[in-house]
Amino acid sequence: MTKKILIVEDQFIEANNLKLILQNAGYQVLPIARTVPEAMSIVNSDQPDFVLLDIFLKTHETGIDLARILKQKSIAFIFLSANSDPATFKEAKETGPYGFLVKPFRTEDVLAMLDIAQYLNSQHLSLIKTLSVARPAGNSSNDHPATLSIIGNTPEIAEVKKLISIAANTDFPVLILGESGTGKELVAKAIHQSSKHKNDPLIVVDCAALPEHLVEAELFGHEKGSFTGAFEKRIGKFDLANGGTIFLDEIG
């Protein structure tokens, strides 16, 4: 299915050049918008798949203002700009764009950025769909045997157990944050034991204990004689965890 692209750019030549690049690549380009109200009218009527928007527009509403609206509507967007002001860049980045295109536009940069943005957006939508299906109703996650080692009845602990149940029902990587001693390994084990991989290996790696020069060999393995001291073939931790779960402790 042909993707629909909306360009929001108040410079005619740049907007038209971008339109030609996209049309030649097979995209359906919607009418070019030059202001936020024009853009919103097209968004509401044509529902674009992606929006390419200039950060600076010659009105009191900027591309950043439009980006905040697009984010609420779950419409992916990429910023266009020739301005590298750090404060503006920081404000734009906080809206969650899928990338930035710097003027003047090069065909290969535009198409590569769109390919990357489409992939990231598809992964994001897939994650949202998975989590919406996996999210348990009420407090059902509290009763799972795998969470019994996590003691407590506070709302915060209940939320942790609920998140464990959600994570266990996906195949996405999970980042567990917390101070030392707060039970990150307990959470990792509970996720593994609650998942469809519970009968497969759970490999725990203490990253803080790995010498820097041996990290690659420990995680990915090595052949005999591949470096000084490699007297025998070694299977890496990722191979050992194949089909199961690997927990990289103290990765930060």
Give an overview in words.
With 252 residues, the protein is an alpha/beta fold. The chain has two domains: 129 residues, Response regulator (Rossmann fold); 106 residues, 3-Layer(aba) Sandwich (Rossmann fold), CATH 3.40.50.300. The protein is built from nine helices and seven strands, in the order βαβαβαβαβαααβααβ. The longest helix is centred in the middle third of the chain and has 28 residues. About 2% of the residues have low confidence.
Number of domains: 2
Total beta-strand segments = 7
Structural class by helix and strand composition: alpha/beta
- Classify the fold: give the CATH topology of the largest domain: Rossmann fold
Helix percentage range:
40-55%
CATH architecture of the largest domain: 3-Layer(aba) Sandwich
Q: From the alpha carbons, calculate the radius of gyration and give it in angstroms.
A: 24 Å
**Global shape:** elongated
Give the spatial strand order of the biggest sheet. 2-1-3-4-5
The CATH superfamily of the largest domain turns out to be Response regulator
Main traits of this protein?
2 domains, alpha/beta, single chain, 42% helix, 7 strands, 5-stranded parallel β-sheet, two-stranded parallel ribbon, 9 helices, Rossmann fold, 252 residues
